[in-house]
Amino acid sequence: MTTPPRTLEPASNFGVIGLAVMGQNLVLNLSDHGFRVAVFNRTAARTDAFAAQHADRSITGFRDLDLFVAAIEQPRRILLMIKAGQPVDDQITDLLPHLAPGDVVIDGGNSLFTDTARRTVELADAGVLFVGAGISGGEEGARYGPSIMPGGDVGAWPIVEDALTAIAATVDGEPCCGWIGPGGSGHYVKMIHNGIEYGDMQIIAEAYDIMGRGLSMSAPEMQPWFERWNDGRLDSYLIEITADILGHTEDDGTPTVDVIVDATGQKGTGKWTVAASMNQSTPVSLIAESVYARIVSALLDERQEAASALGDDIEPLTDSVDQVMADLHDALYAAKIVSYAQGFMLLRSASEEYGWDLDLSMIAGLWRAGCIIRSRFLTEITAAYRKNPSLTNLLLDDYFTHQITQAMPGLRRTVARAARAGIPVPAYSAALSFFDAFRSRRLPANLTQAQRDYFGAHTYERTDAPRGEWFHTNWI
Ligand code: NBP
Fold first, then answer.
1. In angstroms, rounded to a whole number, what is the distance separating the alpha carbons of residues 371 and 116?
2. Is the domain of 109 the same as that of 131?
3. Are residues 135 and 262 both part of a single domain?
4. Span between the terminal Cα atoms of the chain, in Å
5. Residue 5, domain member (yes or no)
6. CATH code of the domain covering residue 209
7. Which member of 37, 81, 102, 380 lies 3.0 to 4.6 Å from 18 by CB, making a disulfide possible if both were Cys?
8. What is the reported pLDDT for 8?
9. What per-residue confidence (pLDDT) applies to 9?
């Protein structure tokens, strides 16, 4: 009788593919929490270097995908942390033949939610459970606790919950990770997070512009204001890092921010948010203006030509510094409330349109820590939706109605002041216009309807007839 060959027990209980900045930090985070991680990267040299650098941990590098898969306990949990788009499909195609039914593939990159919905169905056909998990917080979040927004095949949740919640950030002992819903909902929520991030950054940039060009403050002079604001209602990661940035100098003492070219880059999630808002007929005008502000900034050469032709002078501000700054604080706060109200309108409409049954309170809660938009403010939003899960709009929550009413005069004065001076404030203006339109009992859309009927016989509803009855006038 011969002894059967000894089969090796899989050494790892989690797999990560993709060892760029996010993947490496998530692996270390998983390792910190006791997971034994198998790692693979398309370029094998990166795997070798990473595994060698962390030889003291339970991290095993593989150059072959089949050996990598074989090293992971079943049902396998494999996190893809690679460039979004075609690379994710290519990697799944390579991976699939090695997987067994019941294994879980998690895409932790910034994938488009419609791609995630498609992949969830495609992998389910192959018996593999697919999760599209938005992961926010950048490099540091990945290393020490990101905000994680997983959605997709709900059967995967009991298999991945322990790992994902273990590595997530926490607030009051609660992990910033919770099951979002089916299909592409996790990546959708991450997309909205990123859109809101664009808005938060733009409203801060507009404050910086008014302080700099309007009040002639230097970056170091601005820093204490941001530090002070960070102690109050505006307390947030982005205000905090803005204070740090403004205080940073070059070796010769020049503020570093002053030597940075004023052309903003973007990777696409802001544009996706705006495209989704158009498709869902839900306004996120502040985020849209923030995306356009980046696009305008990137027209660097054209802007230089325009500045020469049209002049780039501004009218100096005549109000006191204290008045301008008090209004600016309120403008930031009011614009932020409108931006989040719009972002949550979009989430609510997606929830209805796609049948996701999103828990808006939980989503606001997931963003309280570990992510770029983390702030004190999100605790209030969590409370508003916890109090009333079917709240139609954040502006109609008692707390936020009061807050926006208090802050609105400051926003209004700031927009007027900036318009007089010639300082662009597209996000503040969008916030103010949305607020005024949203609270208007009657808008000039009646005239627009009349024009549509005049030139295109598109018909209109009448104020003296029930909604849904359509009329046409022979205008000529
Ligand atoms: P990158 O987005 O820069 O992607 C680099 C990784 O993708 C490398 O591991 C690379 O392998 C791999 N890759 C590429 Br490129 N094409 C591939 C292909 N066809 N097949 C397999 N692998 C491929 O990395 P990252 O900045 O760590 O981000 C990873 C994901 O997380 C992205 O979706 C990103 O949008 C998202 N995200 C990033 C951040 C952040 O702060 N960076 C924050 C939140 C989310 P190689 O080494 O062989 O080139």
1. 21
2. yes
3. no
4. 102
5. no
6. 1.10.1040.10
7. 81
8. 53
9. 61
Q: Using CA positions, which residue lies closest to atom 39 of ligand 1?
A: 138
**Tens-digit pLDDT profile for residues 261-313:** 999 988 899 999 999 999 999 999 999 999 999 999 999 999 999 999 999 99
Q: How far is the CA of 19 from the centre of ligand 1 (A)?
A: 8
Per the CB < 8 A criterion, the answer to whether 294 and 270 are in contact is yes
Q: pLDDT (tens digit, 9 = 90+) per residue, 146-192?
A: 999 999 999 999 999 999 999 999 999 999 999 999 999 999 999 99
- Pick from 17, 19, 21, 22 the residue to mutate for probing ligand 1's pocket: most ligand atoms within 8 Å of its CB: 22
The single residue of 83, 122, 197, 469 carrying the catalytic annotation is: 197
Q: CA-CA distance, 24 to 20, in Å (whole number)?
A: 6
| Look-up of token digits 């356009």 | 292
Is 94:30 a contact under the CB 8 Å cutoff? no
In-domain check, residue 8: no
The last residue of one of the domains, among 122, 154, 183, is: 183
Please work out whether the CB of residue 83 comes within 6 Å of at least one atom of ligand 1. yes
Cα 267–Cα 244–Cα 412 angle in degrees, nearest 5: 75
Residues 389 and 429 in one domain: yes
Residue 27 has pLDDT above 60, yes or no: yes
Do both 136 and 202 map to the same domain? no
Quick one: 58 and 162 in the same domain? yes
pLDDT band at residue 10 using 50, 70 and 90 as cut-offs: confident
Report yes or no on whether pTM surpasses 0.90. Answer: yes
Residues 75 and 138 in one domain: yes
Please indicate whether residue 190 is annotated as part of the active site: yes
**In terms of domains, do 157 and 234 share one?**
no
pLDDT of 77 over the 80 cut:
yes
Ligand 1 and 133: CB distance under 6 A = no
Mean pLDDT of all residues in 228-239: 96
Is residue 387 flagged as an active site residue? no
Q: How many domains does the chain have?
A: 3
Give the domain extent around 51.
14-183
Q: Which of 139, 174, 190, 267 is catalytic?
A: 190
Give the CATH number for residue 163.
3.40.50.720
Task: Indicate the residue among 183, 205, 223 that finishes a domain.
Answer: 183
Atom of ligand 1 nearest to the CA of 86: 19
Q: Are 154 and 128 in contact (CB under 8 A)?
A: no
43 CB under 6 A from ligand 1?
A: yes
The residue written with tokens 């997987």 in the block is 99
Separation CA 181–CA 359 (nearest Å): 9
**Statement: residue 472 has pLDDT above 70:** yes
The answer, yes or no, to whether residue 88 has pLDDT greater than 60, is yes
Sign of CA dihedral 164, 170, 174, 176: negative
Ligand 1 in reach of 21 Cβ (< 6 A): yes
